[in-house]
Amino acid sequence: MYTCSLERMTEKIKSFSRFGDTGHGGITRYALSPEDIRARNEFIRRMKAIGAIIEIDDVANVYATLPGTDPSAKRIVMGSHVDSVKNGGNYDGILGVLAAMEVLETVVEQNIDHVHPLTAMIWTNEEGSLYPPAMMASGIVCYDFLPEDVRRNFRYDDMMASNNVLNREDTFGKALDASGFKGDRANRLSPDAYSCMFELHIEQGPILEDAGNHVGVVDCVLGMFNCRLRFYGQTVHAGTFPMPKRQDALFAASQALCSLHEKIDALGYEDLVYTTGEIACHPNVHTCVPDEVDFSIDVRHERADVLEKVLGIVADCADKTWAGCTCRVETMWNRNTVYWDKTLVRYLKEAAEETGVKHQILHSGAGHDAQFVSYMLPTAMVFVQSKDGLSHCEREYSSPQHCTSGATVLLNAVLKADAKRNM
Ligand SMILES: [Zn+2]
Question: What does the note accompanying the cofactor annotation read (predicted)?
């Protein structure tokens, strides 16, 4: 068993938090922004210094590879993203890159034998904060392997044309050309050159902390669906129209939302999560009764039959009128639970047991690049405890000890894959 360095990990977290520092605890580091480029350059500088070979693909994903003893063996890759949301924290994404660097640094420092080349990787534009959608580069690279209804959202030309959300003139394609990080398509992650992938990430929830565990071995990414409920009424004057005659679309929507909560909760699934996070109200004027209101509902659970039951409840909203308004339900998208490779999950679990790291098996409720990679290669994820479960905010925090424990688990799991996988 090998152990990663707390001191080195602490230094890396601190150093990389400079790139995009907001001055009040967090970072804003949009994909391909000057801050993102600085983080990439620092990654490259440090990886070159330990003898890694740097490659960049055509969508700016960066790969740093330490050769193994067998030049014909396929690579084992570890990676995550360095971009963030606006006013994000110093851990989401970047920690997976720092942990991958730490693994390679430990391998070099402790002169650890390995047969397969080991690669630390940066995925471009995971958050999609400036250029939607999220998980853009993994969507492009894994395109041929993704289910049709997923991959239609990641066509190369559409991605290049993705508009900057702050300045509608710039596109992802233009930013890519200007970044100096548009490399060779031949360098893309592929099953020809790579045998498997690990991604370390912060948990982004409170389960590990509540259980007193430092690291989570992730077994799947939860299945989910996303619906839009639209309510149609009639705009009238707020002062002149009697209440009983109104068709108030916002009142209708709020009744439907409360009814959904009641009915979904009555199913009694403790680990079911659902969220209405977006609402649009028309005309959104304080003297007008709203005529059109729509809201989102995002529902996540491991079991397809549970999701189907909830979808039935949501769809039933369209069968009746609410406060005199009609309702239409649209399913925007849904996906099944994605299970990680069982062998890699076992390596992570064994690595956590053997290194004495307090851990548990966990599901992921959020999407990650590894999820798309899992359609192409055996893939698994490891989570590090998030303080108070916070993420996508400046207060996001994971202790250096927990981060280092995560890297240690990753390192030993990678070495198990190196030793045992017949690749
Ligand atoms: Zn992330």
Answer: Binds 2 Zn(2+) ions per subunit.
CATH superfamily for domain 6-221+338-420: Zn peptidases (3.40.630.10)
Cα–ligand 1 centroid distance for 112 (angstroms): 29
392 is in an annotated binding site: yes
178 vs 362: CA distance, rounded Å: 40
Residue 368 annotated as binding?
A: no
Question: With contact defined as beta carbons under 8 Å apart, do 390 and 396 qualify?
Answer: yes
Helix, coil or strand: residue 277: coil
Out of 3.30.70.120, 3.30.70.360, 3.40.1090.10, 3.40.50.620, which CATH number does the structure's domain 223-335 have?
3.30.70.360
Q: What percent of the chain has pLDDT over 70?
A: 99
- Cα 336 to middle of ligand 1, angstroms: 20
Q: Tokens representing 278?
A: 């977006």
Is 214 within any annotated ligand binding site? no
Annotated binding-site residue? 127: yes
Q: How far is the CA of 197 from the centre of ligand 1 (A)?
A: 16
> Does 278 count as an annotated binding residue?
no
Give dist(CA 43, CA 256) in Å, integer. 50
Distance (Å, rounded) from C-alpha 188 to C-alpha 58?
Answer: 7
For residue 122, report the distance from its CA to the centre of ligand 1, in Å.
12
Ligand 1 centroid to 135 CA: how many Å?
9
Strand duo 379-384 + 62-66: pairing: unpaired
Its pTM stands at: 0.91
Q: What band does 422 get if pLDDT is binned at 50, 70 and 90?
A: low
Question: In the predicted model, what is the mean pLDDT of the chain?
Answer: 96
